[in-house]
UniProtKB/TrEMBL annotation:
Domain of life assignment: Bacteria
EC number(s) per entry: 1.5.3.24
Subcellular location: Cytoplasm
Entry keyword annotation includes Oxidoreductase: yes
Family according to the record: Belongs to the SoxB family.
InterPro entries: FAD-dep_OxRdtase, FAD/NAD-bd_sf, Rhodanese-like_dom, SoxB
SUPFAM superfamilies: FAD-linked reductases, C-terminal domain, FAD/NAD(P)-binding domain
Start and end residues of each Rhodanese domain: 35-79
A Pfam family matched in the record: DAO
Keywords for this protein: Cytoplasm, FAD, Flavoprotein, FMN, Nucleotide-binding, Oxidoreductase, Plasmid
Protein name in UniProt: Sarcosine oxidase subunit beta
GO (cellular component) term, any one: cytoplasm
Reactions catalysed according to its record: sarcosine + O2 + H2O = formaldehyde + glycine + H2O2; sarcosine + (6S)-5,6,7,8-tetrahydrofolate + O2 = (6R)-5,10-methylene-5,6,7,8-tetrahydrofolate + glycine + H2O2
Length: 418
């Protein structure tokens, strides 16, 4: 903490803040590591951190073709929650929620988690029945869930449209009070600093161009900064998983799609929670700077481009206006898009692959950011012990071969079915 003491802040302030030391090192790649993680987003950095902290494996490199946190970690709507219903997902996301709740203290870095709660709105009696079932499953697993009727939702969220003309009438909502948001950049920076302090090398501007093979086993990676040999190689490259796996001869049940998010001009505090609007696949929260953060559905085509099309802009803004007519005159300030790994059942993969020495973390669909801590924790366990933890035991690659999908109603990569 002395690095950021009051004296240090004062001393650097009067010298123009030109003498701060680097928060994490910028090392040259070594010829060999015990583990190489491809991808310096939240999942890759968290994996490296937990490999070092939980398993004592510190000879680790995280390599990134661009800059740290420049992929999906910085391109999402920052929502965290653990209200998943299907076996396999339920306790995994609850582990993530518990890790989120102590992450700032764990990393000694403020990730700005705000547990403001999340409402999943219901727009028909059948959706209320489905929400009741979900709530019972969550409660049965010790995860809090509350079901509210229309009058209670209207009391808590008076700015939604409850008029007889409402396009999607609100019948009620299921609520998780521990859900909320976290600052995505801070998550990447916090994990990077903590991993660096454990001895992990974070190597940016280092693109993987192929794998090093030794007697049928992957023994490292070829990169734009030279060959790096490793005992084990893990992939955590959301959006580009199929591309990297293809270099190893694997064809995965994953498609890459674009998912956009938007921020409006700032306004006074209005939305003090997270609201999901299932009928139109729309969600909204308000940032600390006042802008409304809006999310919608996938663009309906495959792409690796970090930009989306105007039809989805129109769809999302129409959904916002249908839910909250009072914001119809707000101006859109900016938007961005991330490239999403969409698995065929809407659930992720954290597992060894059929290729010896290669480990896979991908297929996150809409759940990537909220899963960051548990994803890293479980992937580190899987790499260190060569077997899954019970919380990711269902996230195998061969479940698609066996027909044991975990269908969380993410509906995989089919945008028109979401």
């Amino acid at each position: 903490m002395s690095h950021y003491s009051a004296f240090s802040v004062f001393k650097n302030a009067i010298s123009g803040n030109r003498h701060w030391s680097r928060v994490w090192r910028d090392p040259e790649p070594k010829p060999h590591y015990d583990v190489v993680i491809i991808g310096a987003g939240g999942h890759g950095l968290a994996t490296a951190y937990y490999l070092a902290r939980e398993h004592g494996i510190r000879n680790v490199a995280v390599i990134e073709k661009g800059w740290l946190g420049g992929g999906n970690t910085g391109r999402n709507t920052t929502i965290v929650r653990s209200n998943y219903m299907m076996p396999g997902n339920t306790m995994f996301y609850e582990r993530s929620m518990k890790l989120w709740e102590n992450l700032s203290q764990d990393l000694n870095y403020n990730v700005m988690i705000s547990q403001r709660g999340q409402y999943n709105l219901c727009h028909s009696p059948s959706q209320m029945d489905a929400a009741r079932r979900r709530g019972n499953v969550l409660s049965g697993n010790g995860i809090e869930a509350e079901l509210f009727d229309r009058s209670e939702v209207k009391r808590r969220l008076p700015y939604l449209d409850y008029t007889p003309q409402a396009r999607f009438p609100i019948h009620g909502a299921i609520f998780q009070s521990r859900a909320g948001t976290a600052r995505h950049d801070a998550v990447a920076w916090g994990y990077a600093r903590a991993a660096d302090q454990q001895g992990v090398d974070i190597i940016q501007q280092c693109e993987v161009t192929g794998y090093i093979w030794d007697k049928g086993k992957i023994a490292g990676v070829e990169t734009t900064r030279g060959a790096i040999r490793a005992g084990k190689v893990g992939m955590a490259v959301a959006g580009h998983t199929g591309h990297l796996a293809g270099m190893a001869g694997l064809r995965l049940p994953i498609e890459t799609h674009v998912l956009q998010a938007y921020v409006t001009e700032p306004l006074k505090p209005l939305v003090d929670t997270v609201i999901s609007f299932g009928a139109a696949h729309f969600y909204v929260s308000q940032s600390d700077k006042g802008g409304l953060v809006l999310g919608g559905d996938l663009d309906g085509y495959n792409s690796y481009a970090q930009r989306g099309g105007l039809p989805m802009v129109e769809h999302t803004l129409a959904s916002a206006k249908a839910l909250m007519p009072s914001i119809s005159r707000l101006k859109l300030l900016r938007h961005w898009a991330g490239v999403m790994d969409m698995s065929m059942d809407g659930s992720p993969i954290i597992a060894k692959t059929p290729v010896d020495g290669l480990y896979l973390n991908g297929g996150w669909c809409y759940g990537g950011f909220k899963a960051t801590p548990a994803s890293g924790w479980c992937f580190a366990w899987t790499i260190a012990k060569d077997q899954p933890h019970e919380d990711n035991a269902e996230f195998t690659l061969n479940r698609f071969e066996r027909g044991y999908q975990i269908d969380e109603k993410g509906v995989g990569p089919h945008p028109n079915a979401h």
